[in-house]
Design a protein that fits this description.
- With about 270 residues, this protein is α/β, with parallel strands linked by helices.
- Helices cover about 45% and strands about 15% of the residues.
- It is built from 12 helices and 10 strands.
- The protein has helices spanning about 10-15, 40-50, 70-75, 95-105, 120-125, 125-130, 140-150, 160-175, 190-200, 215-220, 225-240, 255-270, and strands at about 5-10, 25-30, 60-65, 85-90, 110-115, 135-140, 175-180, 205-210, 250, 255.
- Helix 3 links the parallel strand 3 (about 60-65) and strand 4 (about 85-90).
- Helix 11 crosses helix 12.
- The longest helix has 16 residues, at about 255-270.
- The chain is globular.
- The mean pLDDT is about 90.
Length: about 270
């Protein structure tokens, strides 16, 4: 998935329209976006939507409350709906991934977990979290991480790079999705676009967002560009002319197996998105 759109669990109009925003996946949020007194009603709205209207062409996740919260068990019960692909676990650490995995095994719920890495401890434990079989992806949460680190999220620039790189590298090391943090300022389109492009350069496979207006740009950014496709086709065509050579020259550059593999990956991704 390239785009993950957060939708507050207490917003019935947004929930009902979840399938019209063109996101690859939606995340119904019953954690930070929903006040304590509204959590029961939010779960009921989500339950009703999943029973009556759920879309079949997008993935549906629920960001639940933490494993130590009083709401965890009721949130977890939403997994009884077969249309849910999995959960987003906040404040992910190896310890609460273990607790979540134990709960999944006990209830015999076969669902994936997207681990939301949003604390210094989560960053230091990211490789171990990514290695867990129940985890299908890592998502970076810049807001909470910045709060703990006493970083101004909007002035952070390179201050977040180590954390973001750690999340992306850890996910890629174990073949999991690497999902970048949402950009929170709806007014600053330029900064959002810069951050999205940087996320792809860092190796993220997609990006989360909190507003539907960000979905289209995320989807475009994480698809191969026309220039990348032309380059990849040229590499593959040249490789077919040099089938028995470990390395060959093309336009003054040496082409070897890693470059050919990269070209194949670009074309495979482009074909997948058609």
């Amino acid at each position: 998935n390239k785009s993950y759109l957060f939708i507050s669990g207490n917003k019935p109009a947004n929930i009902q329209n979840a399938d019209i925003f063109d996101a690859d996946a939606v995340i119904f949020d019953v954690e930070d976006a929903v006040a304590p007194e509204e959590k029961d009603a939010a779960r009921q709205l989500i339950r009703q939507y999943l029973s009556d209207l759920y879309p079949k062409d997008i993935h549906v996740y629920v960001r639940i409350n933490g494993v130590d919260s009083v709401w965890f068990d009721n949130d977890f019960a939403l997994l009884g709906k077969p249309s849910i692909s999995g959960i987003v676990l906040p404040k992910a650490t190896e310890a609460n991934i273990t607790a979540c995995e134990r709960k999944l095994n006990t209830t015999k719920k076969d669902r994936g977990v997207i681990a939301l890495i949003e604390s210094p401890r989560g960053i230091t434990e990211a490789p171990g979290i990514a290695a867990r079989s129940v985890v299908k992806g890592l998502m970076f949460g810049a807001e909470d991480y910045s709060l703990v680190m006493n970083i101004d999220r909007h002035q952070a620039d390179t201050a977040l790079n180590h954390a973001r790189n750690t999340v992306a590298i850890s996910a890629k090391a174990y073949g999991k999705e690497a999902i970048d943090t949402p950009y929170p300022d709806m007014r600053d389109q330029t900064r959002f676009e810069e951050e999205t492009k940087a996320a792809r350069r860092m190796g993220f496979t997609g990006k989360a967002c909190i507003h539907p207006s960000h979905v289209a740009f995320i989807n475009r950014t994480f698809m191969p560009s026309d220039d990348e496709i032309v380059w990849a086709e040229k590499i593959i065509a040249a490789a077919e002319k040099h089938p028995n050579e470990g390395v060959f020259a093309l336009d003054g550059k040496m082409i070897d197996e890693p470059i050919i593999a990269h070209a194949k990956a670009i074309l495979a991704e482009a074909n997948q998105d058609e």
